[in-house]
Amino acid sequence: MNKEERIELADLLFPNLENSIAEIEKKYPERNLPEDAMVTRYGPSPTGNVHLGNLLSAFCDMVYARESHGVFFLRIEDTDQKRMIEGGIDNITSVLKDFDIIPTEGYSYGGEYGPYKQSERTEIYQAYIKELIIKDLAYPCFMSAEEIESIRLEQEKEKTKIGIYGIYATDRDLSLKEIKEKINAGKEYVIRLKSPGNANNIITFVDEIKGKMKFPEHNMDTILLKKDGTPTYHLAHVIDDHLMHTTHVIRGDEWVSSIPLHLQLFEVLGFKPVKYAHIAPITIKDKETGNTRKISKRKDPFFGVKYYEENGIPIEALHLYLATITNTNFEEWYLANPDKTIADFTFTFEKQAVGGTSFDEEKLNNLCKTYFSRKKGEEIYEETLAWAQKHDTDYARILEENKEDMIRFLNIEKDGPRPRKDISKYSEVKEEFYYAIDEYFEEENYRNTSFDKEYDLDLIEDYLNSISLDLTNEEWFSQTKDFAEKNGYAKTPKEYKKDPDSYKGHVGDICEAVRVILTGRLKSPDLYSIMKILGKERIFKRLDMYKKVVAK
Ligand code: GLU
């Protein structure tokens, strides 16, 4: 076909396009941003619910754009209409909102570079395809599924690369007359790239995360437009990221093998290529096989994002975890900087893991504990209440009825250099602080405590009567020691150990008895703080309850 024929073909295939390429390009001017600003995008396909891997890539998009004073936009990649799920788009927008990963622009956020939904951009893709046809870089292909299948079988037999390329690309050089005949006969067609590549050539490419990579040049006549005139992911990605001025495509590394195709598309379309940063997958050691595998929807409960909400994992703590996956030096930095937040950290692609990062529940838990330890009681109270209002309404009522006390309990041991680290989830507040709530604190609680020790309850009663609740912690402890000594107990465990026969026990035994009576446990936050919040009346109520239980 000569150029005139190709123009005729292009007009025949796309007779009614509203805008020329020049007009389209005008609508997407360069962005007015600082020189090193990154323009990133999250491009989910609404073909399934958002999962942890998606959140990770959206999180990366967000932090890199934010720290470079760039733009992070959301683009809905709904080119595969057959695989769309109902509510898929709403799921994307609501999960981003719920998990506080907020694009600066894009679908449902607005902006000058839209539409941000690929199904609304069909004409744009077609305009570029029309141009490729004129340039002899794309062509209509009428091969049927059966023909393609038989080529595949032949290629398998001959152990050559599977696909439509070279001698297998039989429709590459159809004449205009042949094409017209087929179209008139009602034959369906796709538009394929007329790949100028040669697989014997090796191309070198530098990924922002993975570094230098080498590939054979792309030589497949890949489908660019499907039978229904809509684009494939490959074409849509390249055109959109060109027009929307994306600087960095951060995406899962399942796309690494498409790099040669995407680079070729940038080239044939005459666009400046984006920079790619391929993120390693989140992996896990399979419990059954012991092998490391990608996390999976079917096998791993933490794969879906609902898990985090339902279990009461704070969003900010999940961000901390995503940050540790994003940059290997984040966690150490965060632990060393108690007064800093994620926004103060500088993420770099160099510190991004190249291989898979394994999902580490313990690490997530520890980060959650650190998160709670840095929060004031008031904040923990409000956040837990909001969570309970959705997931445990009875507890929400209890929290509301006991607001002041609860905040005081949650504030115990918060001020020192090493704040308490006991809670890792909102759902654990109830369990950790059940003794704060009279309604929960029943005889039953004592049955879970080990009662192999018998306490001198008369002595404990004397102690509780004698001790004032208006002391400082130091005064309280010194008075408790004096009380111990007066009653035949050693003032310190050390003294007791030196000469156990001379004592009934040591001061720790008295505190232990009080702790068990007041909290039903052998371990708790600072005991005197608990005594002060409970007050004498509740203290003696609990002592009576305890007496009843041991008397039985
Ligand atoms: N729509 C693609 C996906 O969901 C996005 C890949 C990309 O970010 O380019 O996998």
Note down, in words, how this protein is organized.
It is built from 23 helices and 15 strands. The protein has 552 residues and is mainly alpha-helical. The longest helix has 25 residues, at 527-551. It has helices at 3-13, 21-27, 52-67, 88-98, 122-134, 145-157, 176-184, 233-243, 259-268, 306-310, 315-326, 330-336, 361-373, 377-391, 393-401, 403-410, 427-432, 444-447, 457-466, 473-486, 493-498, 507-519, 527-551; strands at 39-42, 71-74, 105-106, 138-141, 190-193, 202-207, 211-216, 223-225, 248-252, 275-279, 282-285, 292-294, 357-358, 489-490, 505-506. The protein has a 3-stranded parallel beta sheet. A 3-stranded antiparallel beta sheet has the order 4-5-8. The radius of gyration is 33 Å and the shape is elongated. The mean pLDDT is 95. It folds into 4 domains: 3-24 and 122-279, HUPs (Rossmann fold, 3-Layer(aba) Sandwich); 31-120, HUPs (Rossmann fold, 3-Layer(aba) Sandwich); 291-373, Glutamyl-tRNA Synthetase, domain 2, CATH 1.10.1160.10; 441-551, Arc Repressor Mutant, subunit A. Helix 14 (377-391) packs across helix 16, helix 19 runs antiparallel to helix 23 (527-551) and helix 22 packs across helix 23. Bound molecules: glutamic acid. Glutamic acid binds at residues 43-45, 77, 233, 237, 249, 251, 255.
CATH 4th-level superfamily of the largest domain: HUPs
Rg computed from alpha carbons, rounded to a whole number of angstroms: 33 Å
Number of helices: 23
Number of strands: 15
- Low-pLDDT segments, ≥5 res: none
- Helix and strand content put the structural class at mainly alpha
The largest sheet, given as strand count, sense and whether it forms a barrel, is: 3 strands, parallel
Mean pLDDT: 95
State the shape: elongated
Output the CATH topology of the largest domain: Rossmann fold
Ends apart, CA distance between termini: 101 Å
Measured as a percent range, the helix fraction is 40-55%
CATH class of the largest domain: Alpha Beta
DSSP strand content: 5-15%
Question: What ligands are attached or bound here?
Answer: glutamic acid
CATH architecture field of the largest domain: 3-Layer(aba) Sandwich
Query: What count of domains describes the coordinates?
Result: 4
Q: What strand order characterises the main sheet?
A: 1-2-3
